[in-house]
Design brief:
The chain has 10 helices and 4 strands, in the order βββααααααααααβ. With about 300 residues, it is α+β, with helices and mostly antiparallel strands. The protein has a domain of about 200 residues. The longest helix has about 35 residues. The N and C termini lie close together (about 5 Å).
Length: about 300
């Protein structure tokens, strides 16, 4: 899946080797467009849209994944015509998936690390009142859980293939930004780690959460602390977006350190693609560039 201003293009390889392309026009509300000029708020809006579009794209591609499994095991029946899978007609499924994913995120990556931190403090008999130190422990637990989770799901063949396409997106974008012809051969030579990846933003958000969550009083109830953490997530997302936006192409020491740290996480969220993966990413990128209403180099790619 590739996005340029005003366009989202999805390319999917079918079982017969052909690549199916879907283009979706992203109509901007004038009121929302003005808000995209406001720092922090624009980050929340762009990230929210990216998550929703990502789930829609996965739902769209899942039809062809199911078709591939069917045709791989049943060669006696002719393939049925592909139904109209326009993104506007499949809103309920990605929305349900989004709600489930957000619930899992809150439970596993917000509430559980906080519960473990409180439990460890109770078991050791320590009475730590320094909120920053407590959040440093909680943030470290959260980061470890993220690594474990991504490493675990990467063992699933379908998820590993998704991660290969993620790497293909990055390589294709690097080739475009270098001004090279968009071919698998040219894209292959670039890194699969990109500084504007959503993984880098996730890592930045987790780092800032250690500081921001420190403002929450430590003597509140467990549920109140969880609720306040949830309420601060949009602010954290907006701040993280601004940091990535400003420093993704910077050569400063802090920017390079941040990218290197996030690249360690991208080792898990991307896999080295082969030429078939690269071809799909290039088809999507070419389509998005061709149809974009504002052909700029500031592209967004995500799983």
């Amino acid at each position: 899946m590739m996005r340029t201003p005003g366009i989202m293009s999805i390319a999917v390889r079918r079982n017969d080797g052909n690549i199916i392309l879907h283009n979706d026009l992203l109509i901007q509300n004038p009121e929302k467009t003005r808000l995209l000029l406001v720092p922090i708020i624009r980050g929340v809006m762009i990230l929210s849209q990216s998550v929703i579009l990502g789930f829609r794209a996965l739902d769209y591609s899942s039809y062809f994944a199911a078709e591939n499994r069917l045709t791989a095991t049943d060669h006696t029946n002719a393939r049925a015509p592909v139904p109209d899978r326009s993104l506007s007609s499949i809103r309920w499924l990605p929305m349900a998936s989004l709600i489930l994913a957000l619930s899992a995120f809150i439970g596993f990556f917000l509430a559980f690390p906080l519960l473990l931190t409180d439990t460890l403090q109770a078991m050791t008999g320590l009475n730590i009142t320094n909120s920053f130190f407590l959040n440093l422990i909680e943030g470290s637990i959260r980061l470890v859980l993220v690594f474990i989770y991504i490493y675990a799901i990467s063992a699933i063949p379908e998820i590993r293939r998704v991660f290969q396409y993620h790497g293909a997106e990055h390589k294709a974008i690097f080739a475009y930004e270098a001004g090279m012809e968009l071919t698998a051969e040219n894209a292959r030579q670039f890194s699969r780690f990109h500084p504007r990846c959503g993984t880098a933003l996730l890592f930045t958000l987790m780092l800032f959460s250690i500081l921001v969550f420190s403002i929450i009083p430590t003597d509140l109830s467990f549920f109140m602390k969880v609720a306040l953490r949830i309420s601060l997530i949009p602010f954290l997302a907006g701040i993280s977006y601004e940091v990535i936006r400003k420093y993704s192409d910077s050569m400063s020491v802090p920017a390079r350190i941040l990218f290197q740290l996030s690249a360690w996480l991208q080792i898990l969220t991307t896999r080295e693609p082969d030429d078939e993966h690269l071809e799909v990413g290039i088809v999507a990128l070419k389509s998005a560039l061709q149809l974009s209403t504002d052909n700029q180099s500031n592209l967004t790619s995500d799983m």
